[in-house]
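Summary of Year 1 activities. Much of the first year was spent building the evaluation harness for sequence design. The harness presents a backbone, in tokenized form, and records the residue chosen at every position. We chose the following record to illustrate the format because it has been used consistently in internal testing since the harness was completed.
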């Protein structure tokens, strides 16, 4: 029965039910003493004895009244709770309030997970992780300079809001209509075309609250976000790349376009931005740190190139996982294998940043022909990962409906399995190829 969930550990209800029961017992004892005194001193008509069951043994009478009292009290308590909560719970969800409370209590005891990245990859990860814990911190890149975010960044001098908007929508616990509204993109209108409502909302909130960080917090509160969303830095930075064919390419929106040339390295301008202090604090306090999935050069690396972010990750004793993309990305990671992703990360931020690399082992997902991509292959040569002290973990992670993306539930389940396996077995070999779900 759902009602029994109120008695589950961690619901913070049993103590108050017991206190209420104690109060009812005292009230019953006081009433019983008063009635007993009247019963002994005052004569009563014969029918009173009948309705008080005087012809039944006392222990049987006590049991009957106890059962009746408990039944009435439970029914009254349930109806009272539903009546009071109906003012705060969305219409039609009153009967699910016990599940809502249970879920919130359970998630609040989940591990502290830090997710680092940007774009669609990060929001995909967050959608899965929020089903396991509400102690989530999303650390988001601020290098985006294209589309609606780029225009608002130039016009208002704010960090690009697009990736923050996607994270808010992914972690929101609000009604689906509110989430759709936040993601709505205008298709016409002078000056509005191409902008999303969520981006404009964040910009407006920044003006009202006085700064971008508070705007993100207040926007998250409005949409009942599970966790927090932080920038990796507040510096006004740009991403640049050196390519083999064209030399220097500037701007995140320009990097990776087919025809720009194979990327040799990316770097930030300015080169040493200060990390956002709350982001560093979250990393150092995390129980699990996850980097990716997402565009390797334009979503993942811009966060890791903030020097103190990489240092904080390296200093953490918690498990650190890099989630490799399930498919190559045209213009960025053409023909990349698993080891190539790891090599690029090492070339940019050095060794000993990750303990695990989570890799998809299901190559059968259908990819759109026009995308000019293919599944990221495990090329049989994982000695590089072994030499770098990175444990490769294999699992079916791909979304069967979209072979370019991870499936949120599969991804989150695999990450949580890594976390719990690490917690339960501190003696696991650090450089072992592991198959999840085998």
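For this record, the design step produced the sequence shown next.
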């Amino acid at each position: 029965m759902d009602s029994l969930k109120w008695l589950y550990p961690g619901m913070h209800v049993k103590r108050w039910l017991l206190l209420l029961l104690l109060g009812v017992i005292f009230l019953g004892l006081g009433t019983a003493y008063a009635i007993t005194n009247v019963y002994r001193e005052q004569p009563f008509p014969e029918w009173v004895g009948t309705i008080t069951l005087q012809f039944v043994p006392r222990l049987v009478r006590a049991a009957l009244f106890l059962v009746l009292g408990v039944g009435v009290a439970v029914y009254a308590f349930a109806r009272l709770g539903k009546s009071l909560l109906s003012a705060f719970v969305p219409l039609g969800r009153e009967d699910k309030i016990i599940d809502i409370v249970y879920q919130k209590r359970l998630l609040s005891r989940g591990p502290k997970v830090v997710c680092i990245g940007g774009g669609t990859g990060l929001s995909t990860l967050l959608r899965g992780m929020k089903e396991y814990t509400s102690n989530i911190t999303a650390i988001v890149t601020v290098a985006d300079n294209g589309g609606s975010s780029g225009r608002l960044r130039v016009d208002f001098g704010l960090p690009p809001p697009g990736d923050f908007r996607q994270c808010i929508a992914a972690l929101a616990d609000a009604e689906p209509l509110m989430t759709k509204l936040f993601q709505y993109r205008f298709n016409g209108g002078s000056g509005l075309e191409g902008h999303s409502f969520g981006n404009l909302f964040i910009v407006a909130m920044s003006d009202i609250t006085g700064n971008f960080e508070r705007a993100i917090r207040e926007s998250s509160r409005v949409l009942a976000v599970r966790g927090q969303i932080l920038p990796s830095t507040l510096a006004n930075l740009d991403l640049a790349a050196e390519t083999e064919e064209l030399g220097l390419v500037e701007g995140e929106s320009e990097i990776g376009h087919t025809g720009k040339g194979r990327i040799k390295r990316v770097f930030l301008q300015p080169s040493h931005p200060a990390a956002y202090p709350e982001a560093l604090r979250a990393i150092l306090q995390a129980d699990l740190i996850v980097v990716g999935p997402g565009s390797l050069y334009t979503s993942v690396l811009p966060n890791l190139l903030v020097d103190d972010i990489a240092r904080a990750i390296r200093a953490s004793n918690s498990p650190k996982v890099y989630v490799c993309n399930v498919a190559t990305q045209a213009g960025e990671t053409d023909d990349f294998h698993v080891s190539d992703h790891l090599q690029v990360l090492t070339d940019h931020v050095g060794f000993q940043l990750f303990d695990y690399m989570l890799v998809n082992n299901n190559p059968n997902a259908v990819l759109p022909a026009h995308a000019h991509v293919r599944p990221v292959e495990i090329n049989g040569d994982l000695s590089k990962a072994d030499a770098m002290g990175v444990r490769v973990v294999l699992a079916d992670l791909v979304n069967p409906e979209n072979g370019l993306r991870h499936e949120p539930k599969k991804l989150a389940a695999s990450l949580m399995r890594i976390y719990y396996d690490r917690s339960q077995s501190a003696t696991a070999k650090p450089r072992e190829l592991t198959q999840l779900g085998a």
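The longest helix spans residues 14-41. Quantitative recovery figures across the full test set are reported in Table 2.
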